[in-house]
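Re: phosphoenolpyruvate structure - here you go.
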Amino acid sequence: MRQPLVAGNWKMNGTLDSVQALVEGIIAGLGEVQNAEVAVCPPFVYLETVGRMVGHTPIALGAQNVAKEDPGAYTGEIAAPMLTDMGCKYVIVGHSERRNIYGETDTLVAEKYDRGLREGLVPILCVGELLEEREAGKTEEVVARQLDAVIQQVGIGGLGKGVIAYEPVWAIGTGRTATPEQAQDVHAFIRERLYSHDPAVALAIRILYGGSVKGSNAEGLFGMADIDGGLIGGASLDAGEFLAICQAG
Ligand code: PEP
C-alpha cells in the first residue's frame, strides 16, 4: 500500500512572519488529515525556522533544490549535507521552473538526484511536458526521456528510493488542471515503464500529480489508481486550502 504524500512547494514566497503563520495554521489543522504524509518545502533561508516548528510534528521538511557538488567554492549554491543538517527529508529536483527558467538539463537533474540520494535525502523528481510537446503528441516521449536520465545515473533501485511528481508544465500556476483521466494516463505510463525495469519498484514508488491542485479538485485527482498524492504550489501558501488538499490524500 502506497501512503499518499502531499508536499507544499512554496517556491520563492514568504516572509519570516508569513511563513511562521502558515506553519502554525497547518499544524493546527493537521489532526484532520487521516492518510497522507504531509511535507513542506520552504525557501532555503526559512528551512531552519520551519524545521524547528515542525520538528515535533509528523510534517516532513523538504528543500526545493540542491547542488550536485560537494561543499566547496560554489557561490550561491546549497549542498546536500546542509539540507540534512537542517532536518530535510525530501529535496525537489528537476522542477519545471528549474528546467525551463534556469536551463537545468536532464543530465544535471539526474546528478542532483544522485547527490541528494547519496546524502540520505529522498528526491522528489519532477517530470512533465510543455504545452507544445503535449499538442505534438510527445508527452510520453518527454517523460520517458526525463525518467531514463535518472535511471541511467542511479539505476532503477536508486529511482525506487525517491518519489516522482508528474507535473504537466501547462498546468503549473495556470489554474488549468489536467483532468483526473489525463493525469492518470501519464501516471499509468510511468508505472508501466518502471515495471519493465523492476516490478517491485514500479508498484511501490509514489507518483504525485502537480499542476493547479486545489481543495476543490484534489479528491478527483487523488482518487485515480496511480496518483499517490500531490506536489502543490500556489495552494500550499494558504493553510486552509493546503489542509483541504491533504485531507483528500
Ligand atoms: C508546482 O510548482 O510544483 C505546482 C504544482 O504549482 P501550482 O500548484 O501552483 O500549479
